[in-house]
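Reading group handout, session on sequence-to-structure problems. Before we discuss, look at one worked example. The prompt was deliberately terse, the way you'd type it at a terminal:

> structure Glycoside hydrolase family 5

The input record follows.
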Amino acid sequence: MKTNRFLTLPAILIALALTFSCSSNDDNSSIGDGSSSSSVLVSSSSSGSVATDPRPSSPQAMLNKTALQYFNDEGIKAGWNLGNTLDAVNVPSAASETAWGNPKASQALFNGLKASGIDIVRIPCTWIGHVGGAPDYTISEARLARVAEVVNMVHNAGMKAIINIHHDGNYTQPPNTWGFLKFAEVTRGAANEAQVKAQLVAMWTQIANYFINYGDYLIFETMNEVHSGNWGSTLPAEQDRLFDWNQTALNAIRATGGNNAMRFVAVPGLGSTEPNIVLAAHSRGKLLPADGANGVSKLIVSVHFYAPSAYTVASATPTQGNEPLRHTITTAELNAIDTEAAHIKSTFIDNGIAVYYGEWGAPTNVRSTMNETVKSTHVDYISRVAAAARANGIVPIYWDDGGDFKVLERSNGSPKTGLWADVLTAYMDAVNGRYVPPAPTLPTNITGNLGNYQFGTQENDIDPNYTQALWILSPENVTLAKQAGTKLVLHFSEFPFGNMQLVWQGPTNKLWWNAKDIIEYSDGTATNTYGVEWVWESNTNILTIDLSAALADYAEFTEQPDINLIIAYYGGSNVNDLGIISASLVE
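And the output record:
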């Protein structure tokens, strides 16, 4: 995350003060706390010697599971980021755990997180100031040991852990004068890519070797939000470069062998790594690196979800940025949350590829003193994102920076009363299936001779079925529908991102006839698997369906005295997500 945008003014002043008062050795104390197995460490570094080695002394068990199976079987539903802590850094001095105003991580924090319902903790790690020069780029033992100590505390609390290379190059907007992941500089030809990749290999080789004995509860994430200066870039040349860097990092990890040969590794997309960025790269085959015999089973796609940005990552306080933070959110923006999650599911989850929202959230502190409407909208947003993630098999990992995005107290892992507690409750309810979304509103402005639809009903013929758009055909349209060659023409706001089915109903005779699926959406591509005649016009977003080819029994259909047509959509929270603009029957 673009973390420096979320430092409150007091935190900024603290960070400036600590720049002059803190040394890089603040990470070196208490090494070994929370470790279930340690041994004497015989080496030391310029950053300070370490008395004990916090790592397991022998390889821990690795379960022979895919990442998707592991998430499901281990019940990993909700995550949390230890933000602005091990990723905090004072330019140009070393990364410092307390530099941005948060206390050092403790066992009490992680015990509280587990009690609050958290299953996995992402530990963003910045290594700047703890790395030697070329060609070895040696990482200090003290820094590695502190990261291990935090991982141990997470594990001892009963949770899983993720570590990465976080702000080592993408902390500030270009020009980047001090980090090593000089993506922007390499992109414009101002830095040596071979040198960048050499350091990437050296660092991941050391990190992987240091943590080689850890079980599969420890996940590696190659890097964080690397970009060229354009946070929303989907340029093929930049996709290709990041794909190569992810491949380089993965190769270095796998080359260390041992448990790392099977360790789960997460890979991000460019910049903000929002869904559209990740999906664009994947559509070109430039997201998931090759992983040998593992295939995609040990890889995880890391997506960051901050949509809509004006509601989540605009200036959260008056001292930050130029774009004002918006405190309202539209129905279309809420529907997009479900649509994007469904698109991720059909592209990755349905094809056996695990996905987590490595970061998501919205600023709570700034809204905690506002009116009840603002607070209610904020809680609804949290519920909607978490519920959409759960419904589509995505693990959401909340971004908590200890400031504006704070949810839980760093002292004990529990929320403050008020809006913070409401956010946590909403989060836990959503990931545990207790969130009940508000009933969608029927559209009133659909054009065409079919006009507006109503929602279908559940099997009890009473409760609404929000996945179904039902048109009760007029006598004129019944006659038209029975004519050979008649087509159903639907104009959408965008292409459907999920399976869709055409159903017809003979209400007088109580007949239901399920068609073959019209569209099967898999691996990011809509297919005509079932042989139904349909044509999609990408320039107009119009879908044309031949009724005689789409219906399971067209002869039975034409014998009905009255007819209802139903479109069932499984790519969002409800059929409104299709964004139907017009619906017509045409000869």
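Points for discussion. First: Residues 454-586 form one domain. Second: Confidence is low (pLDDT under 50) at residues 2-48.
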